[in-house]
Design brief:
alpha/beta; 2 domains; Spore Coat Polysaccharide Biosynthesis Protein SpsA, Chain A; 297 residues; 42% helix; globular; 18% strand
């Protein structure tokens, strides 16, 4: 069975999320709502939809998302009972009516192929629910490294709500706790797939809401810069030896860019130098040194 976990904090778009779940043509799912001590009490809305599908609600005593969004995800995931598959759905995101039905329609093939990560097509919507992007579709089967290359080339996007994960993989591997959980979800996709393909269901949609009220809609920050550095560093350190030259070069390009955007980080400079040594990228070190030298003239 499928668990739909909603780390709840804000009321603004929450009814749209619940309404989308009420509209599911297949009701074989349970919803777990973990209230991060938010300012808006959702009980009235939950009461309104309690007969439409199975809801498990818990209000936590403290706000954890402001300290660690990943830890908020984890305590919400701890609410899950015996479901095998889990989607972590944003409290402002929406799914199409056939989201659950299409998962079960493909489940036999997903099981046969030993898939651990399932992905949906997505459309970005604004605060008014209007579509502001094309439909982002994906190959039916795709390795994590091919997905990264495609994403780095600007050929696709990614957000947590569009994935269904094997619960046992989340429990065993865990989301990495980067600042603001920025790129923690993307790394989860890579790690939870465990070297197997990501399986895409293009016949249903997740509508990702871009607004000023969520982290994605906010401008870049020191925290995001720090998270990107950790993400690229982690990929090179843990998977770099398996990656193609093309992907390694992409990761170094991005790592250098975030480092140049926050130069006053001596430990990061040391870390970057060690990666140059490990991957024999001495020419990159020289080129970066010359670039910095020219910039301060």
């Amino acid at each position: 069975m499928l668990a739909i976990v909603i780390p709840y904090y804000k009321h603004t778009f929450f009814e749209s999320t619940l309404l989308a779940l009420k509209s599911q043509t297949n009701k074989q799912f349970a919803v777990y709502i973990g209230d991060d001590a938010g300012p808006d009490d959702p009980k009235e809305l939950i009461e309104k939809y309690k007969d439409a599908f199975t809801i498990n609600y818990k209000r936590f005593d403290s706000n954890l998302g402001s300290i660690s969004l990943v830890k908020q995800w984890e305590r919400c995931l701890d609410m899950v009972q015996d479901e095998t598959w889990v989607v972590i759905l944003g409290d402002d995101d929406v799914v199409s009516d056939s989201f659950v039905a299409e998962f079960y329609n493909h489940l036999d093939e997903i099981t046969k192929l030993k898939i651990d990560v399932v992905r949906y097509s997505t459309v970005v919507i604004n605060e008014d629910g209007e579509e502001i992007s094309k439909t982002h579709k994906h190959p039916k089967l795709e390795t994590a490294s091919d997905f990264l290359i495609r994403k780095f080339k600007g050929g696709t996007r990614s957000s947590l709500s569009e994935y269904i994960f094997k619960k046992e993989k989340i429990d065993a591997i865990k989301f990495k706790d980067f600042p603001l959980a920025w790129s923690s979800d993307l790394l989860g996709v890579i790690e939870f797939s465990c070297g197997n393909n990501i399986y895409t269901i293009n016949s249903a949609l997740v509508y990702f809401r871009l607004s000023r009220k969520n982290i994605t809609g906010k401008t870049d920050s020191i925290e995001k810069n720090e998270a990107w550095f950790h993400f690229y560093d982690y990929l090179l350190t843990n998977f770099g030896k398996q990656y193609s030259k093309e992907l390694i070069n992409m990761l170094f390009n991005r790592l250098e860019k975030v480092q140049l955007n926050n130069k006053k980080t001596p430990l990061r400079w040391m870390r970057l130098f060690l990666l140059y040594v490990r991957f024999h990228q001495y020419h990159r070190f020289l080129l970066l040194f010359l670039k910095i030298k020219r910039s301060i003239r």
